[in-house]
Amino acid sequence: MSADYVPLEGYETLSEADMRAQAESVYDTLRKRRSIRDFSDKPVPQDIIESCIKSAGTAPSGANHQPWHFVAISNPDMKRKIRIAAEAEEAEFYGGKAPDEWLDALAPLGTDASKPFLETAPWLIAVFAQRKGGEQVGQSKKNYYITESVGLATGMLITALHSAGLGTLTHTPAPMGFLRDICERPKDEKPFVLMVVGYPAENAQVPKHALVKKSLGDISTFIT
Ligand code: IYR
User: Ligand 1: distance of its center to the CA of 52 in Å?
Assistant: First the structure.
C-alpha cells in the first residue's frame, strides 16, 4: 500500500516577536500548574472534560495507533469503589511494602494512605494503555511505543485541563490492576495513571518543595 499525502494545514507563520510572546505565554500558564490534593466538590460540566480528552487524543503515537483509553468518572458509587480499592493498596504501600528510600523521597509531600480526594473531586479520569489495537477501533494489531504514546497523551490531557482552569493530581496507586476491574476494561489494557480533576479547594495547600523547578541550564544543553 502506498502512502497517501495531503497538503499540511493549520500552521500559521508567526513573526519572531509573536512567537516569542506565545512561547512565553504558554510557559507562564504551565509554570502555574501544581499537583493538587485538596479539591472542591464543585461540579465540572462534562463537556469541558470531553474537550480536554479530545485534546489528549491529538497526541502523536506509534504508527498512529492511539493506544489509549480514557474512562471519565463522576458517578459517586464508582468514585467510592475506586477510593476504597486505592486506599487498600496505599495502606500496604505505606504500611511496610515501600522501601525506606521511597518513603524518604515522599516525606516532603506528607502523603499517606488516606485519599479522600478520590471522592471529593468531581471527576476521575483513568488512563489505560492498550497493548493491542490499531488505527481503527476494534483492531487487535500490535501497538508500538505504548508507554511513550500514552505518556504524551496524558501530558497533553494535563495541559488541557490546567489551561481550562482546572486542578489535577496525577495519582498512581500501585498496583493499579483494580482500575481495570472497576472500569470493566479488557485484559490487554494496562492502567497507566489515575487523574484526579476538579477545582482546587478554596484554601488548598501545596507542598513548598515542589514549587522549585530545575533551571533551564540544569535541564538543557544547547549545541549550536
Ligand atoms: N501512590 C502513593 C505514593 C506516591 C508515590 C509517588 I513517586 C508520589 O510522587 C506521590 C505518592 C500515594 O499516592 O500516596
Answer: 24
Distance 194 CA to ligand 1 centre (A): 12
Up-side HSE of residue 41: CA atoms within 13 Å toward CB? 7
Ligand 1 site-directed mutation target among 34, 83, 87, 93, most atoms within 8 Å of CB: 93
Question: How much distance in Å is there from the Cα of 94 to the middle of ligand 1?
Answer: 10
For every one of its 224 residues, what pLDDT tens digit does the chain have, with 9 covering 90 and above?
Answer: 579 999 999 999 999 999 999 999 999 999 999 999 999 999 999 999 999 999 999 999 999 999 999 999 999 999 999 999 999 999 999 999 999 999 999 999 999 999 999 999 999 999 999 999 999 999 999 999 999 999 999 999 999 999 999 999 999 998 899 999 999 999 999 999 999 999 999 999 999 988 899 999 999 999 99
Global pTM exceeds 0.70: yes
46-202 adopts what CATH topology?
NADH Oxidase (3.40.109)
Give the start-to-end residue ranges of the domains of the chain: 46-202
Q: Is the peptide bond before 7 cis (omega within 30 degrees of 0)?
A: no
The count of residues in the chain is 224
Hey, which of 83, 106, 179 would you mutate to test ligand 1's pocket, going by the most ligand atoms within 8 Å of its Cβ? 106
Q: % helix / strand / coil in the chain, to the nearest 5?
A: 45, 15, 40
